[in-house]
Amino acid sequence: MRGYYYMIGMNRFNEVTVISRNITKRDMMQKTFRVALALVMVTVIVSIYIAVVESDSTSSSDAAPAWGYRCVDDRCVKTAISENYQVDKAVSFAACRLMCGNGAGMLWPQPTGGITIGTDLVHIDPEQVVIDWSENTQQLASLWLTVRERFHRQLLATAQGVSLRTGGRSIHIKMDVQDNSLVLNHSTDESYTLKVETATNGSLLATITAKTFFGGRHGLETLAQFVLFDDIRKELQMVASLTVSDAPAYPHRGLALDTSRNFVTLDGLKRTIDAMAMVKLNVFHWHITDSQSFPLVIQSRPTLHRYGAYTQREVYTAEEVRSLVQYALERGIRIIPELDAPAHVGEGWERLNVTSCFNYQPWENYCVEPPCGQLDPTKDAVYDILQDIYREMNDMFHRSDLFHMGGDEVSMRCWNATESIRNWMKVQEWGLQEADFMKLWNYFQTEALRRLDSTLPPGEKRPIVMWTSKLTESPYLEQYLDKDRYLIQVWTTGNDSKVNNLLEKGYRLIISNHDALYLDCGLEGWITDGHNWCAPYIGWKKVYNNDLMAIGGPYANQILGAEAALWTEQSDSHTLDNRLWPRLSALAERLWSNPRTGWQAAEARMLLHRERLIGAQVAANSIQPKWCLQNEGNCPIARID
């Protein structure tokens, strides 16, 4: 008697197959027995494997800790847990760093006022946190709710994904904010005080007092840094008593980010804003467009993004921009838009027939990088287009009281290469010398500003920011730029004599000196051999030591602050975090705390702060082996005789 036996197997593509064979009844019984035995053996092996894996997983996350830390001479010293240093007395790394020394070992940026920290750490429950806000700020309730959710996420991130021990004390946070205004500018009070004490019922009571929402938000950001994860006891802990008084040294603390050379996704922008909020930066300067692309959707001029964006997916709509402005506001950040002109225009613009020297070759004769392109100031259509763009941008960026008009790297050769421009200048009875092309530039700037003003509420004269350029040098500076209207953003070196000239003439400055604050420096040259034009690479130490008081000298009070700049010829959404962090954190402490000590005094805190960025899903660059973090003071700079 013959029958059919069906065997389930796997083919070389790992797909389930059914194999049919013609066999006898006896063979079928033997085969069936062998298959059943094999299945039993496989089941046993798989069960053993799973048990081993689970055991390994358990042992790695729940095993008894091997190390604790002792505070010795204001440093945390790694100490093996033993009979002489038992686990119930052991201090976790985070707890030691918080309590050892001056009490600010966990904080970035350091507070500028007084700070006192008690000696007791208590177990807290992250699910038992209540935040109340003062009645006079009830109209800001939606913002406070967002702030509360962010604080809760920060507490969970502190736990590093570990399953926490249950229980712990509750936390009641009272936001005592005096003003319900949401105006964030150079005059906004961002100060706060923070006090934590133990209530009669054993819960923790934190009171944050501030004049504005922004100060209150900063206070909560500081409180989050006083929550630590005890990896020995698998619990979140917080200091039972503390006081902090704090206020920023500079009102303008920011990042200038280019999203034209390479597109940056909204998720990338939001992640950047989240990290900026962690270190109390308050300005996101958005260089949205340039000659390479025009990703901003201008509904009244759709040609610009339709032909100027890299793809129709890589654009920013008005709704997305407004949403991002709100997202930033909730995190204490204002977005300042930049429309760079008359240079740095090209893709999209050329379809409107208002450009000169677009993509001329050889490009180095007309601009600093390809493709070249400048607006033609002699064409009336230029100003009609600009007025439409300004009107829509003002609607998108409705909370910004500054507008950046660019004015960077204008090429006289570009305009001089356009016959229609030369002919127009001759009709004006101008020559074709530098001074004459500077007149042309001023003609453009004056009319562009008039069109911008026409889109603002009657009587409003919004401050204008422009990059340092030939126009910001004497004698053109005094002739064409009103110091009461214009702020100058410096991108030359910090010791450039032109900076001192601007200060002597009474101009207010935003510092972005490329020798310390250009975060794209030191990469491989993409239009030259070797490294790029501003090499070498700028590390966090140089950023930290870039002292604005030294740059300003006797005129230091005219410096409003600084911005680090990332130009994205060689960066995009995938490399963004690594390019920015933790170097941007170094700038944040320089601008908030204005430390009188150098980077050496901050290094141990920087290593710890970088770990916090990683915990917040920010892919910050590593700066030392983790061994140096765990063995404070053992990785000093080598002395070479």
Note down, in words, how this protein is organized.
This protein is of the alpha/beta class and 641 residues long. Helix content is 34%, strand content 21%. It is built from 20 helices and 22 strands. An 8-stranded mixed beta sheet has the order 5-12-8-9-7-6-11-10, sandwiched between helices. α3 (141-158) runs parallel beside α4 (213-225), α5 runs parallel beside α7 (318-329) and α8 crosses α11 (434-454). The longest helix has 38 residues, at 25-62. The model is unreliable at 1-23 and 52-59 (pLDDT under 50).
Write the layout of secondary structure elements.
Blueprint: E1 2-10, E2 16-24, H1 25-62, E3 67-72, E4 75-80, H2 93-99, E5 115-117, E6 121-133, H3 141-158, E7 169-177, E8 192-198, E9 204-210, H4 213-225, E10 227-230, E11 235-239, E12 242-246, E13 252-258, H5 266-278, E14 283-287, H6 303-308, H7 318-329, E15 334-341, E16 355-356, E17 374-375, H8 380-396, E18 403-406, H9 412-416, H10 419-427, H11 434-454, E19 464-467, H12 476-480, E20 486-490, H13 497-504, E21 508-511, H14 514-517, H15 540-544, H16 548-552, E22 559-566, H17 576-580, H18 583-592, H19 603-615, H20 626-630
Parallel strand pairs: 6-7, 7-9, 13-14, 13-22, 14-15, 15-18, 18-19, 19-20, 20-21, 21-22
Antiparallel strand pairs: 1-2, 3-4, 5-12, 6-11, 8-9, 8-12, 10-11, 16-17
